[in-house]
Amino acid sequence: MTERTIRTALISSDQSFREMVKDVFLSHETWTAPSIEIVAPFSAFGETELRAVRQLHPELIILDLGEDPDLGIKLAHFLSESSPGQRFVAVGPHLEPELLLSAMRAGVADYIPRPVTPEAFRTAVERVRQLLGAAGGKDSAKQPGQLYAFYSAKGGAGTTTVATNFAVVLHRLTGKKTLLVDLDLELGEIAVLLGVQPRFNFVDMVQNFHRMDADLLASYIERHDSGVHLLSAPYQPEKAEIVSGDEIRKILHFLRKHYDYVVVDTAKSFAPATLAAFEQADLAFLVTNVDLASLRNIQRGLPLLRRMMGRSGEHIRLIVNRYNIDSEISLKDVEHTLGLKVFRSLSNDYEGVSRSINTGKPIVLNGASKYGADIQALGRDVTGLQAKKQRGAGRLSALSLKKLFGRGRAEEATNP
Hints:
The protein is α/β, with parallel strands linked by helices. The chain has helices spanning about 15-25, 45-55, 70-80, 95-105, 120-130, 160-175, 190-195, 200-205, 215-220, 245-260, 270-280, 290-310, 330-340, 350-360, 370-385, 400-405, 410-415; strands at about 10, 35-40, 60-65, 85-90, 110-115, 145-150, 180-185, 220-225, 230, 260-265, 285-290, 315-325, 340-345. The strands form 2 sheets. It has an 8-stranded mixed beta sheet, with helices on both faces. A 5-stranded parallel beta sheet has the order 2-1-3-4-5, sandwiched between helices. The protein starts with 7 loop residues before the first strand and ends with a helix.
């Protein structure tokens, strides 16, 4: 039996405990030591420390509550809201039942009262690693993740914005590993929408795919603060020419083995990359505006898209973007023209969406946007889940934990 790498962070101001943790990890032949070690006390925990955790996007956090259990549990709650899929192994003093329950709600899967022995710590970590699916072999065979392809038959429909924000919503609703793939290999711009500068891109992965494994994959992926991962399009359009449809199929198949959700933004043409994405898609989202040119192009392309998916239209979802109820063309007209039901319509928030693109901050992170609320509803339709209330997101990252969650300010911080 093999074990996959679990990204681990260690947060403790106690040097002796940190040394014990490292000794336990080093003594286990298949475990990888914590990738980051944060020694700042909770009272000084601020933007620098949060950025380090976000960049790693750990699955497991070893959290020492000894210094201040109240403040440490509040930190765990904040980190869980930012990345719901991660788990904690926490140590500290004996906790009152209410505080222990709060820790469990924050994602603390195992709590060890002090004094902590190496044996007790090792056992706790083993349990949580099993929960995270560390063990390999037949017993833990993982089903391929869901792949969702987004396509528009006409440029300017807002497909990239829809796909990007949809991926953020998927991750926030489910806490599952979510990857955005920019398959507009000539002029893809998801990196701009997320405000990141990719080191590598899809074409780089194609050129190195012969030696690709989970560890190497991680080095090609950008991690956004929202918790979503990105495999970017190349900056130079000419690089798209060297990628074949067969190579894209192999990579998408590979990515589905490593992510719960793969959200693919395709080019506005029937290029090999687009057709490969439709072949692999569990759901295909056609994004359109309510204008005759857009509707005519979709009407022309639907037979090919259905043929590439190898199924009838039950796996195709029609999204009407920038919809205005006063439009001369109604949703009924759209459905009659295309022979497809409108799955979701998205409000026209041109100013809000433009601002989010220019600032590199997905609009779904702005709770005041009607467009963002529509994308949230789309995510709930697809997953069948209700949205989790995101409390204090964005405020804590700008100030120290102590300033917001100190004993005199706790109520203000958690109830803005």
